[in-house]
Amino acid sequence: xxxxxxxxxxxxxxxxxxxxxxxxxxxxxxxxxxxxxxxxxxxxxxxxxxxxxxxxxxxxxxxxxxxxxxxxxxxxxxxxxxxxxxxxxxxxxxxxxxxxxxxxxxxxxxxxxxxxxxxxxxxxxxxxxxxxxxxxxxxxxxxxxxxxxxxxxxxxxxxxxxxxxxxxxxxxxxxxxxxxxxxxxxxxxxxxxxxxxxxxxxxxxxxxxxxxxxxxxxxxxxxxxxxxxxxxxxxxxxxxxxxxxxxxxxxxxxxxxxxxxxxxxxxxxxxxxxxxxxxxxxxxxxxxxxxxxxxxxxxxxxxxxxxxxxxxxxxxxxxxxxxxxxxxxxxxxxxxxxxxxxxxxxxxxxxxxxxxxxxxxxxxxxxxxxxxxxxxxxxxxxxxxxxxxxxxxxxxxxxxxxxxxxxxxxxxxxxxxxxxxxxxxxxxxxxxxxxxxxxxxxxxxxxxxxxxxxxxxxxxxxxxx
Length: 465
Known about the structure:
The chain is of the alpha+beta class. The protein has helices at residues 3-12, 21-44, 48-57, 74-86, 101-116, 120-139, 144-147, 152-168, 173-184, 193-196, 200-220, 236-240, 248-251, 275-288, 308-314, 318-321, 327-331, 334-344, 360-366, 414-424, 430-440, 449-458; strands spanning 63-65, 70-72, 93-94, 263-264, 299-306, 369-373, 385-391, 397-401. A 4-stranded mixed β-sheet has the order 6-5-7-8. The chain has a two-stranded antiparallel sheet with strand order 1-2. A two-stranded antiparallel sheet has the order 3-4.
């Protein structure tokens, strides 16, 4: 049995539907968070090009295009929704695989779920199959895609989307294997945006989800794909990963251990690789006893101890990180983001507004942030955070956290999750409350009609709301 055959047999079998209640609750939490980030992006117009292109693609009215009041093909809807979920970089991350799990899974589940008239229970099972697929594929080779200059979310997400689509389309295991093989030929996602601040990374989950659905449809129409797509000599890891993969991790423990419960919900709309540092900086502020110390120019130096894999993405090249050119640039700058947190006491969506990039106080403090690359055991996204603040003429203070907030060891509270979702929806409203309620009880929904309609209304750009 190849990895693809074993994975497909499990994903299409009873395992995802029979997942423990803890797993089902976790999946609903992440779907709720994903809808929230998509709605927030839609209201802000953050994914306007993808939404416009999806709307222009047209096609049969299979699925909703959130925020537009229009419908289109499931492929077009997945392109729009995937970009919306990820556009603000506020969506969840699986630390072990460094993948944005919901951004790859939710668009395919929503689009194909609508297309096929699936029940909420069927959509939830498909989403769990997708979560396990994308997380396990990423975790089999931690940071390996990033080391090669590729975005693991797109490289792994396209196969996860194919699994979601295959289950909802009720494909047989052999056809699903073909879908995985076809999806693997569409894996990619260049990280070159790090050099320019371009927004291509926003598009990766949308492209992955759309391509995964196309792969399932091509397989259903008779196209074939290699069943060695994952472990083969020219397969996913051999071609695209910069480090060796332990492919046994993909299928070992299916239905016994659940990666769905190990996904982090982000408290900051920025790259996950610097969240522990931001948490440690906040701890240092509390230790200093004065959240506005930096605002008075009293911090002479900030030292952040950073995992080598994180430093390569959020700290280097050092000169470029001090003067971000775009909001996406800033979201991947540890010095700039730490400076903003020290000055404001928080990091929010407003931190990365275009006007904020011109703040001289943030730039001045960012220049005094020094990073020390420090090896830590384990993966970068699950490394501890450690920051030292040296006030001018004052007592040095430290902040330490064992890992970033929002993950399995330090989960976001229900109140914090609801607050994040509600803020993304523009504040409390009957529609926001009803959408949250329906997603939490997804298994009870007869279909996705009500959820899709609520998300569509809430995601309308603010000028049109």
